[in-house]
Amino acid sequence: MILNKMKMPNLLLLKIFLFSNLIFFLNLSTQTNAQFINEINFDQNFKILGAEVISGYPLEGNLIIARTNPLNKVKVNNELIEIDQSGIFVIGFHRDEEKEILLTITEKKKILETFLYPLKRIYKVQRIDGLKQVMVSPKKETMDKINADREKVLNARSKKVLLGDFTSGFNWPLKGKITGVYGSQRILNGVPKSPHYGVDIAVPMGTPVYAPASGVISLADDLYYSGLTVILNHGLNVNSTFLHLSEIKVSIGDKVSRGQLIGLSGNTGRSTGPHLDWRIDWVGKRLDAQMLAGPIKY
Ligand SMILES: [Zn+2]
After folding, report:
1. Ligand 1 centre from 73 Cα, in Å?
2. Are residues 86 and 161 in the same domain?
3. How much is the pLDDT for 25?
4. Residue 278 domain-assigned?
5. Which residues, chain by chain, have CB under 5 Å from ion ligand 1?
């Protein structure tokens, strides 16, 4: 009896404490504070029926990594998604993601439904002036090259490869000052353009770029906008893209391990100074590489 009486206020205090932290957490996670988000890219309240969550939770730009029975079928909004033979599958969230996403796992004849409600984020507006006009509004001839490039990139990103080691996280391909973030709306020479999906890291020309996780090279080419570009398939339709390189050190089909040299940073294509632009995508959805790699550790 005495024990119970003693426990009650403590429990209440604990609840208030947890609740106030939750409010604090929700406030922060809807902001663009990617560094904070990554430290805890796991929400123990987020569960998937029929699967075990390894990391991630529904948030724009984020990636959920989960494991189910490899014999199960996993659908996102009624579209089958790939599962590794180990049962691992992933779900990524775009900028301005849908409010509600239905995830279904079919286990024999049982259908398990989980509704995902991705948290919204606030994005920056970034103005860049002084770009050569030809790079902002290309001439008609140039459009053919741009369209051909887009086709190459789409093909390269849809290549299927075996699951690599990204389920244990992404390393930074190099270290430096972050000068551009995921999702920012770019206004180039006063003209609003599509959002920026990469993380820009300002580094001196020729800085080595290392593979953030293992994979297979599916593109190594000179493209109009992104200059010397490399695409690395990590498996389960997750890819990294490296833009504006000064040199490419790999070829299509190369198997690359985590930490392997893939190129040197540069200033090729539509770029206003030497930097690396690193992007991650999943089935056409653009993810936040900075969030997935976490704070840069020196
Ligand atoms: Zn960029």
Report:
1. 36
2. no
3. 39
4. yes
5. 180, 198, 200, 277
The candidate with the shortest Cα–Cα distance to 77, out of 50, 97, 56, 96, is 97
Q: Read off the amino acid at residue 47.
A: K
pTM confidence score: 0.84
**Residue 191 pLDDT:** 85
Quick check: is 28 in a domain?
no
The CA–CA distances, whole Å, from 79 to 75, 76, 91, 121, 285 equal 5, 5, 12, 25, 14
Smallest Cα–Cα separation from 294: which of 145, 175, 156? Answer: 175
The count of other CB atoms within 10 Å of the CB of residue 122 is: 10
Q: Are 122 and 31 in contact (CB under 8 A)?
A: yes
In order of 52, 109, 116, the CA distances from 49 in angstroms are: 8, 14, 11
Q: Are strands 199-202 and 191-192 parallel, antiparallel or unpaired?
A: unpaired
- Render pLDDT for 45-96 as a digit per residue (tens, 0 to 9): 999 999 999 999 999 999 999 999 999 999 999 999 999 999 999 999 999 9
Ligand 1 geometric centre to CA of 176 (Å): 14
Is residue 243 over pLDDT 70? yes
Q: If residue 18 lies in a helix (H) or strand (E), which one and from where to where? A: helix 2-29
Which amino acid is present at 97? E
Q: Quick one: pLDDT at residue 155?
A: 98
Give the distance (Å) from ligand 1 centre to CA of residue 230.
14
92 and 200 share a domain?
Answer: no
Residue located via tokens 């498996």: 235
- The three-point CA angle 182-93-128 to 5° equals 20
Q: Which domain holds residue 89?
A: 34-116
